[in-house]
Structure formats: structure tokens, C-alpha cells
Please model this.
Amino acid sequence: MTTRRPISTRFNAASTADEVLVDVDLSGVRAVVTGASSGIGSETARALTAAGAEVTLAVRNTAAGDAVAAAIGKSTGGIRPRVVRLDLADRTSVTRFVDAWSGPLHLLINNAGVVTGGLERTIEGWELQFATNHLGHFALATGLHDALALGAPDHGGARIVAVSSTAHMRSGIDFDDLHFERRDYDPQIAYAQSKTANSLFAVEATRLWASEGIVANAVNPGGVATGLQRNFTTRQRESLDAVEAAGVFTYKTVEQGAATSVVAAVAPEFAHSGGHYLDDAQEAYTVPNDADLARHPHGVKEWALDPATAKRLWAVSTDLLRTADRAAWGVQGHPSV
Model:
């Protein structure tokens, strides 16, 4: 476990995104927020736009994204975000988004996420939660790396925010069966694995890219009632109710849930420091892998910050994407049929 003192800020669990952005001028800052058609993503996008940022809503449902953009434009006096389609489970969609991006990028908020009630797979055969929550964002971030590097000198660095969850405490990364091809499928364990992956991404991205002025941090927004829970099974709902009753978390408003993402995006304490996991607007304390969730609801397990695991996951993720691209395009460079 780390022996240094965790990074702290003046904000806390009750802080809102707007409070974090008081007196912060984001004029000239270009930001992408995935999953910004509802919930924490839309609030994060609204707050950044209100502070002057040029925000792109990267969403699967563009009609919902347009409605959010219109509402943001109304609330900000006419500053309306751009809406671009992005389906993180679709490699072609991610590639199109990356190829269409032009110019620098200063903030990438990897907010989108999916929860399934049963086993679902992508066209590549990947388990859907891991494919969407981790691999899709991994492909997006690596694809936008050059834009982030280009933007880094403009505002004292570029930042990536990876939205994780306290659910990461349920599971590390099972490299022997990432996609549940041999073990029994448990959607809660699958989600947990994907959230651990989000944190590990921040660790390795910072190691690789900090010299270019790019840092990445993972955040736990806390308990917020959003559309993410719409696919919960009865068992998943009962599990959530049980941990709430045990005092593991209390529900936040969407405005409070977005605050930690915004802290990671703009707080000076994290301008040049990455590879951390934030909870309630602070860097979380690290706990052993066998730590009990109920006793450490604001901690982060060692497996979510381990540099060797992060490096391995990066390599495995890169290989998965390369293999998928070769299968899609064929050895001659033409789409296979």
C-alpha cells in the first residue's frame, strides 16, 4: 500500500459540480464527455459548458443527446455543446469518432457505462460490460492520444477522467477468462472487473503519457440513481439495497455525483498528478485486496492501482483491439465478408 498522504482538496461528498467550478474559466478548453445523454454525464457536460468549455457530447442515442444539448444551451444562455454519435461497443463507431476529431483536445471524460442483467456479447465475442466500459474507452483514449498531446501545452496539460465505481472492490482482472468463456457468468462480477479496468487504465496511461503533459485519474462518483440501473435484475437491486442499508453509501444528487469527475478534470491538485482513484472529491486511501467493502466504502483496492497489472492490461487490451481490427479488415486491408 502507498505510504504517502493521499491528495486532498477543499471539496467533499456534498460538493456539486458547479461549486467545484466557481471562479474557474474554461474558455478555450475542448472537452469530450462520453455517455452525456443523461445522468452524471449530462451534468458534467452542463457544468463544463457553463464554465466556458467547448464540449462534445459523445453519445449512442443522438436524439437524447440533442435534447441534453438544447437544455444546456438554454441554461447557459446559448452556449450549446456539439453532439456526435459514439457507441463504445462498436469498433467502427469508435474509429469514426476518432477519425472525425480535428485539432487539440484538453479533457476526455470517459463517463459512459453499461450494466447488464445477463451475459451479452459484442460482435467480436467480448463480454459486453468489459467491452463497453473498458475496451471502448481504451480505444477512444488511445485513438485521441495525439489530440490530447496537441492540447496539453495550451492549458498546462491535458487530462483524462475514467469513471470507475466502488464496485471495483468485488473483483480484480481475471486474465485467464476476461470474457466469461469458462466461468459461470455473474453480471456483478463482470461489472466490477470492468470498473477495476477503468482504474488500471488511469495508472498506465499516466505512466506512458505524463511526459507529454497527459495525466489520467479514475473517479468513483458515489451512489447516484441514474439510467445505469435500468437493466438491474432483482438480485442486483437487492444487492444494492443491502449495501445501502449497511451504510456502504448514501445516495447523492446528480450534481454531487458529477463533482468528483469535475475535480479530476479541473482541480489544480491533479493538474500534473495521475494514476489515482478519487472518491468524494479526494484521492482515496488504498486498502488490501481482501478488505471488506462495508468497512472501507471510500477506499480503493490494491488490485485497481497495481502498476504491473495495469501494464499487463494495457498490453492485453491493445492485442484484443489489433486482433479485432485484423479480423474486420482482413490481411489485404479490405473489409471481410
Q: What stands out?
A: The chain has eleven helices and ten strands. The mean pLDDT is 92.
